[in-house]
């Protein structure tokens, strides 16, 4: 495993970080604990030493399972990261910071975390919650008490807002979206690097979609003839930026883990050839042409008050638009409400209340996309 430096802390971390938002699950959406623990430990045994989770991941179960995986001496080998859910509607008082941190440490069964991030900041959350509730003071107190080692944040908003937060000088690390098809944060990543801020990236392989294994043969041929795996390009693109400290990937299977390990263990893991740069330009262009929205399956838009299974619908829509697999996409859509792994209702149940629009970190026009999905996927 290749290592990089985590900002001005000087800590050496693996180029690949283990994101715990997409751990293997059963049909009832519960984590397959033994399999997940085995997967996380294999990653650590293979050199990964940066693990990332959050209050919301797997409805709170992710922190518990990660805590179990870090028993037997594994905790001492990693930089442990979790996130404070300031976006929760119940998070309205300064003391809620302390209450959430206390519960998260209990879930993890740990005394401290290395980095505690304000989760999914945008301008509103930063101003109303972080500044308005004086949460920096709470965080510094938690740091003094040894419950957290570093203040950090994850982010979903414009580069202008991101610069404002970087310039505040409060933070040691930021986590931002960055991949082949979403390069909007490129300049701010470089700016953060100049300031000595550690940069972790999420969506590095686009929630697994940029690996390309499910792309239609026609699209694969259009992009790069003969290539059947794009995970290497996706990770190499992110890590070719010297200001990126660690690239997170949510790995839910041993195959995904092995693919990513094989890439980040090579000496040329961050070096792009001129041909690869051309491929990246083609991929970015083609994805934008084929899909009006790039849903990363974060599921922040859910639950929907009308039980619309938004993330599953977008999964089907992207199979239709990007992968070219129209038959399977329509089959998936028809299963909504008939099986535990496709629960809820289809897009016809949307009443356009707009609650999901406020939650989406990708600013997807969810209501319009649901209409489009129903139009093309309903048999």
Mean pLDDT: 89
The CATH superfamily of the largest domain bears the name: NADP-dependent oxidoreductase domain
Percent of residues in β-strands: 5-15%
**What is the string of SSEs from the N terminus onward?**
EEEHEHEHEHHEHEHEHHEHHHHHH
The strand order across the widest sheet is 3-4-5-6-7-8-9-10
What does this structure look like?
With 379 residues, the protein is an alpha/beta fold. The chain is built from 15 helices and ten strands. It has helices at residues 33-45, 61-69, 95-108, 123-131, 135-144, 159-167, 186-194, 217-223, 231-239, 254-264, 274-290, 310-321, 326-334, 355-359, 366-377, and strands spanning 3-5, 12-14, 16-19, 50-52, 79-84, 113-121, 148-155, 173-177, 198-202, 246-250. The strands form two sheets. It has an eight-stranded parallel beta barrel with strand order 3-4-5-6-7-8-9-10, surrounded by seven helices. A two-stranded antiparallel sheet has the order 1-2. α3 (95-108) links the parallel β5 (79-84) and β6 (113-121). α1 (33-45) packs across α2 and α9 (231-239) packs across α10. The longest helix is centred in the last third of the chain and has 17 residues, at 274-290. The N and C termini lie far apart (48 Å).
């Amino acid at each position: 495993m290749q290592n990089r430096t985590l900002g001005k802390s000087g800590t050496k971390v693996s180029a690949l970080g283990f994101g715990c938002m997409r751990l293997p699950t059963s049909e009832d959406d519960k984590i397959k604990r033994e399999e997940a623990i085995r997967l996380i430990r294999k990653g650590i045994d293979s050199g990964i030493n940066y693990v990332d989770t959050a209050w919301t991941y797997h409805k709170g179960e992710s922190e518990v399972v990660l805590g179990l995986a870090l028993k037997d001496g594994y905790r001492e080998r990693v930089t442990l990261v979790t996130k404070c859910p300031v976006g929760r509607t119940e998070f309205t008082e300064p003391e809620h910071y302390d209450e959430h941190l206390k519960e998260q440490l209990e879930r993890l069964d740990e005394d401290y975390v290395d980095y505690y991030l304000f989760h999914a900041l945008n301008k509103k959350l930063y101003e109303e919650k972080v500044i308005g509730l004086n949460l920096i003071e709470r965080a510094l107190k938690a740091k003094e008490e040894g419950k957290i080692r570093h203040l950090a944040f994850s982010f979903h908003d414009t580069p202008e807002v991101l610069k404002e937060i970087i310039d505040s000088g409060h933070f040691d690390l930021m986590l931002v979206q960055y991949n082949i098809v979403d390069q909007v944060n490129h300049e701010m990543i470089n700016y953060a690097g100049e300031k000595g801020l550690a940069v972790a990236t999420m969506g590095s392989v686009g929630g697994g979609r940029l690996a390309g294994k499910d792309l239609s043969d026609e699209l694969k041929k259009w992009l790069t003839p003969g290539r059947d795996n794009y995970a290497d390009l996706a990770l190499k693109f992110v890590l070719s930026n010297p200001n990126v400290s660690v690239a997170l990937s949510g790995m839910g299977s041993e195959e995904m883990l092995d693919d990513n390990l094989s890439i980040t263990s090579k000496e040329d893991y961050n070096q792009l050839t001129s041909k690869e740069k051309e491929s990246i330009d083609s991929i970015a262009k083609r994805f934008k042409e084929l899909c009006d929205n790039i849903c990363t399956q974060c599921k922040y838009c859910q639950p929907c008050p009308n039980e619309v299974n938004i993330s599953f619908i977008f999964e089907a829509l992207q199979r239709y638009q990007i992968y070219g697999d129209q038959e399977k996409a329509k089959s998936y859509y028809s299963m909504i409400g008939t099986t535990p792994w496709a629960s809820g209702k289809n897009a016809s149940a949307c009443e356009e209340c707009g609650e999901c629009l406020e939650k989406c970190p990708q600013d997807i026009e969810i209501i319009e996309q649901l209409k489009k999905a129903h139009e093309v996927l309903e048999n």
